[in-house]
Amino acid sequence: MAEYLNAATLLELAQRAEQRDVAPCTCTKTPLDGWLSQPLSLDETQLKEVGTLAPDDDPEPTFSEYLPGKTGYWSADAPIAPRYFPYNRCTVWQCSLCSRLYLRYTEGGGYFVDRRIRALQSALIEDVPLPE
C-alpha cells in the first residue's frame, strides 16, 4: 500500500517538485491542469507512485466536493482539497523523467470506468476540514 500523504505533506512534496528545473517532457503533450481522462499519449511506464491521499482508516471517504465560487470539477483553477472528492481517492504519481507530479484516480459509472489525471500544483492545495 502506498504511503498516506496528508495535506501538509502533499504541499511540501508539490513545492519540492516545482523547485526543480523541469525540462520539456513527453508527459506534458496534453495539458493536465484540470481533470482529464488519462490521455493515450501519456506513457505510464515513466510514472511512479509516490503516495496516496486515501487514508487507511476511512473505508468510505466522502463524495462531497469542495468547489468554492464559480469553480467546477473540470476547472484548471479548482482547488485541490485532499479530504474531498475526488482527491480523497487519489494516488500521487511522479514522472521519472521530469519530476512533475500528478493526481490519479479511477471514476466508475454504471457502464464505464474512466482513469482520470490532473497535474498537482502547490498553489491550488487547500487543507479544508470536512463539515461536522
SSE blueprint:
Blueprint: H1 7-19, E1 36-37, E2 47-52, E3 91-95, E4 101-108, E5 113-119
Antiparallel strand pairs: 1-5, 2-3, 3-4, 4-5
Structural class: mainly beta
Portion of residues within helices = under 10%
How can the largest sheet be summarized? 5 strands, antiparallel
Using the CA coordinates, give the radius of gyration.
Answer: 14 Å
Average pLDDT, rounded to a whole number, is 92
Distance between the termini: 29 Å
Approximately how much beta-strand content do the residues carry? 15-25%
How many helices? The count is: 1
Which spans of ≥5 residues are poorly predicted at pLDDT below 50?
none
Lateral strand order in the biggest sheet: 1-5-4-3-2
The total strand number stands at 5
Global geometry: globular
- Counting structural domains, the number is 1
Order of helix and strand elements from N to C terminus: HEEEEE
Give a description of the structure.
With 132 residues, the protein is mainly β. It has one domain. The protein is 10% helix and 21% strand. It has one helix and five strands, in the order αβββββ. The chain has one helix spanning 7-19, and strands spanning 36-37, 47-52, 91-95, 101-108, 113-119.
